[in-house]
């Protein structure tokens, strides 16, 4: 039976299902300048603009490099995993290493107005769509 | 501080969904956070990756030698965003560990930096190794 009322708690699950539904679509093209699948990216649309969100836990702001050129975005950096000299390890699941990934968006972005925010291990890139790329409304004379 | 190699290229770690004996009352997916555990003579250190979780949304508890850590994502941050292309899913984090050592419950410290939660669990006095002198 269909739900007869809006379920505020179900919204998150619906969001998670929407994320799953779009996985492995070919929307983002890998760029020639950098390979690598790390970090995994989520791309959202917010009005006219594009928002890219990625999880980079354990990576310091200073160790993160972001470059934008035309439609290509490059994310590079290193992730250290440290532990005490005399410690004995019981479990190791966190990976250390470096990454370099470049992706090309299928839309024109305004490279000068790109904003990046990094909080709690989450990087959000706000990519405003270039004015010249926006659709123009044409009125029928 | 010992450092592990950083020269190698990072691989994507697929998130593991939580399979729990208890059921949740909220319909949302939970994931199991990647965790490192290391031990020194006087403390157990648990390092967990919980990207996107704010300080106020982390719950740490120890009950009957079971360490339970839960981190919740503030879903409101994703409102108004329409997914176009996705490579990972977003969810709350939850994981429990049974501790083999006695932990001094009064001396647990937690630190959250760049999405990494570090818990330092000091061992209780009786669990510390004692040196026994031979007469």
Q: Would you spell out the secondary-structure blueprint of this structure?
A:
The complex is a heterodimer of chains A (141) and B (135).
Chain A: H1 10-21, E1 29-30, E2 41-46, E3 49-55, E4 64-69, E5 72-79, E6 82-83, E7 88-91, E8 97-104, E9 115-119, E10 122-127
Chain B: E1 2-3, E2 16-17, E3 30-32, E4 35-39, E5 43-49, E6 53-63, E7 66-73, E8 82-86, E9 92-98, E10 103-113, E11 116-123
Parallel strand pairs in B: 3-9
Antiparallel strand pairs in B: 2-3, 4-5, 5-11, 6-7, 7-9, 10-11
What does this structure look like?
The complex is a heterodimer of chains A (about 140) and B (about 140). With about 140 residues, chain A is mostly beta strands. Chain A contains 1 helix and 10 strands. In chain A, strands 1-8-5-4 form a 4-stranded antiparallel beta sheet, with no helix packed on it. In chain A, strands 2-3-10-9 form a 4-stranded antiparallel beta sheet, with no helix packed on it. In chain A, strand 2 (about 40-45) and strand 3 (about 50-55) form a beta hairpin. Chain B is built from no helices and 11 strands. In chain B, a hairpin with a 2-residue loop joins strand 6 and strand 7. The termini of chain B are far apart. In chain B, about 30% of the residues are buried. At the A-B interface, helix 1, strand 2, strand 3, strand 6 and strand 7 of A face strand 1, strand 4, strand 5 and strand 8 of B. Strand 7 (about 90) of chain A pairs antiparallel with strand 4 (about 35-40) of chain B.
Keywords:
heterodimer; A: 141 residues; B: mainly beta; 5-stranded mixed β-sheet; 0% helix
Main beta sheet of chain A = 4 strands, antiparallel
Strand content of chain A: 35-45%
How large, in whole angstroms, is the Cα Rg of chain A? Answer: 19 Å
**Given the helix and strand composition of chain B, which structural class is it?**
mainly beta
Largest sheet geometry of chain B: 5 strands, mixed
Rounded mean pLDDT score of chain A? 84
Largest interface: A-B, 63 and 51 residues
How large is the count of helical segments of chain B? 0
Spatial extent as radius of gyration of chain B:
18 Å
Q: How much helix, percentage-wise, in residues of chain A?
A: under 10%
Summed up, the helix count of chain A is: 1
* Contiguous runs where pLDDT drops below 50 for at least 5 residues of chain A: none
Main β-sheet, spatial strand arrangement of chain B: 2-3-9-7-6
Count of DSSP strands of chain B = 11
Q: What is the overall silhouette of chain A?
A: globular
């Amino acid at each position: 039976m269909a739900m007869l009322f809006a379920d505020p708690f179900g919204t998150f699950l619906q969001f998670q299902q929407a994320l799953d539904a779009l996985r492995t679509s070919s929307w983002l093209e890998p760029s020639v300048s950098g390979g690598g699948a790390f970090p995994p990216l989520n791309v959202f649309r917010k009005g006219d603009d594009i928002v890219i969100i990625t999880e980079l836990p354990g990576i310091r702001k200073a160790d993160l490099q972001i470059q934008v050129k035309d439609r290509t975005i490059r994310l590079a950096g290193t992730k250290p995993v440290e532990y005490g000299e005399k410690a004995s390890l019981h479990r190791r699941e966190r990976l250390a290493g470096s990454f370099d990934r470049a992706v090309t968006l299928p839309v024109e972005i305004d490279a000068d107005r790109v904003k990046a925010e990094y909080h709690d291990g989450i990087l959000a890139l706000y990519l405003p769509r270039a004015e010249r790329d926006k659709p123009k409304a044409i009125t029928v004379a | 501080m010992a450092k592990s190699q950083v020269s190698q290229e990072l691989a994507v770690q697929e998130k593991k969904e939580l399979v729990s004996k208890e059921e949740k009352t909220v319909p949302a997916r939970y994931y199991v956070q990647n965790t490192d555990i290391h031990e020194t003579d006087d403390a157990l250190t648990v390092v967990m990756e919980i990207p996107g979780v704010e300080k106020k949304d982390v719950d740490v508890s120890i009950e009957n030698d079971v360490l339970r850590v839960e981190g919740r994502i503030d879903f409101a941050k994703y409102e108004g965003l329409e997914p176009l292309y996705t490579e990972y899913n977003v969810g709350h984090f939850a994981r429990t560990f049974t501790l083999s050592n006695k932990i001094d419950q009064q001396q647990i410290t937690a630190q959250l930096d760049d999405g990494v939660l570090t818990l330092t669990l000091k061992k209780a006095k009786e669990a510390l190794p004692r040196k026994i002198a031979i007469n």
